[in-house]
Design brief:
Elements: H1 24-69, E1 71-80, E2 86-96, E3 104-105, E4 108-114, E5 122-126, E6 129-130, E7 135-144, H2 148-160, E8 163-170, E9 173-175, E10 182-183, E11 186-193, E12 202-208, E13 219-227, E14 231-244, E15 247-259, E16 262-272, H3 274-279, E17 291-303, E18 306-307, H4 309-316, E19 319-325, H5 326-332
Helix pairs in contact: 2-4
Length: 342
């Protein structure tokens, strides 16, 4: 029998490849091609949410903190050309700033006066400056003295105190590179040395005459006034009253007095009641050794023919004590023979 090949009862299966699935990267690219604008909006919103608080909230706080931590050291404070209601000032100060930021400080209006005083002496324009550590800032201006009482109290503190505190206040704007301007409070208290009541005031090279000279004075000498501060005070022509144990004996006159830092040596002229002075020495006087204590108090200050009330009042509140060896003065003046009659 011939072999009969059996035909399969199953239909022939034709193999076909399934469509390839897209990869993650290709899908992501396709997604961003379609929805890029949505992601851009989200990114912008996120950046604004993060950056805006930094720029407009955090940076101003950082700037204010850095200003609070900065220091101010006044190295020179020179007053000049006083009038009854103005005075010129040249103030040099050094800024101390240890912060990592050193923004530009724009020019601003600052009040100057005694720290803690409710009323400033005046206002001055602080020039635009960098805020580098060690930056020197110079304020050079003529101050309008709107409150004479505040000015008088300021002058009294400078003349009478061993130390006093200068207050500087303003609201400057700062700018760090591309960041927007930020307004901060500049409120600094600077401890300064004062003239310490003119302590160390001394008379020397004193001579007297029996009769007044052409200018009405009868005693000449030299006065030494130390100034341990960095402040220069232009007192002008000053008149001071002299007394011994509460008894007025005359007046002394210092012309063109300008108290600069360091030693101040000036000629001095006085009108003294010689009869009273001689009564204090000798066997019957309270000072038989001839060394008489003088109490000296301010009377007035005149500059360019005008009395400067804030200097006059400060002088009146300053009392000085000096000694005068009347015996030696008589000898140096060629009047030693008078000692034999005492």
């Amino acid at each position: 029998m011939a072999d009969v090949k059996a035909e399969s009862v199953y239909p022939e299966v034709v193999s076909q490849d399934a469509p390839a699935k897209r990869g993650f990267v290709a899908g992501t690219i396709a997604h961003f091609k379609k929805w890029w604008w949505v992601h851009l909006i989200v990114l912008i919103c996120v950046v604004l949410i993060i950056i805006f608080p930094i720029i407009y909230v955090a940076y101003p706080k950082i700037a204010q903190t850095d200003v609070n931590n900065a220091t101010l050291n006044v190295t020179s404070l020179v007053f000049s050309d006083p009038t009854p209601d103005t005075i010129h000032v040249n103030q040099t100060q050094v800024l101390g700033n240890k912060a990592i930021y050193h923004p530009k400080i724009y020019s601003f209006n600052a009040s100057l006066g005694l720290a803690g005083s409710p009323v400033p002496v005046s206002y001055a324009t602080v020039p635009e400056t960098a805020s580098n550590d060690g930056q020197v800032i110079i304020v050079d201006a003529t101050l309008q003295l709107h409150n004479i009482e505040a000015t008088t109290n300021f002058t009294k503190a400078v003349l009478a105190s061993e130390t006093w505190e200068l207050g500087v206040y303003g609201r400057p704007q700062l700018k760090e590179m591309v960041l927007p301007k930020s307004t901060v409070t500049f409120n600094k208290t600077v401890e300064m040395k004062g003239l310490n009541g003119l302590e160390g005031f001394a008379l020397s090279n004193v001579t007297i005459s029996a009769a007044p000279g052409a200018d009405g004075t009868n005693m000449n000498g030299t006065v030494s006034i130390p100034n341990p501060s960095v402040v220069t005070v232009p007192m002008g022509n000053i008149t001071m009253d002299i007394s011994v144990n509460g008894t007025a004996v005359g007046q002394t006159f210092l012309n063109n007095l300008n108290l600069i830092p360091g030693a101040n040596i000036y000629p001095v002229k006085s009108l003294i009641n010689n009869t009273l002075m001689l009564s204090f020495i000798g066997k019957s006087g309270p000072y038989p050794s001839g060394v008489v204590p003088l109490d000296i108090s301010g009377n007035k200050s005149v500059y360019n023919g005008q009395e400067i009330s804030y200097f006059s009042d400060a002088l009146r509140s300053t009392s000085l004590r000096a000694t005068l060896n009347v015996t030696q003065v008589l000898i140096d003046s060629g009047l030693g023979l008078l000692l034999g009659a005492l």
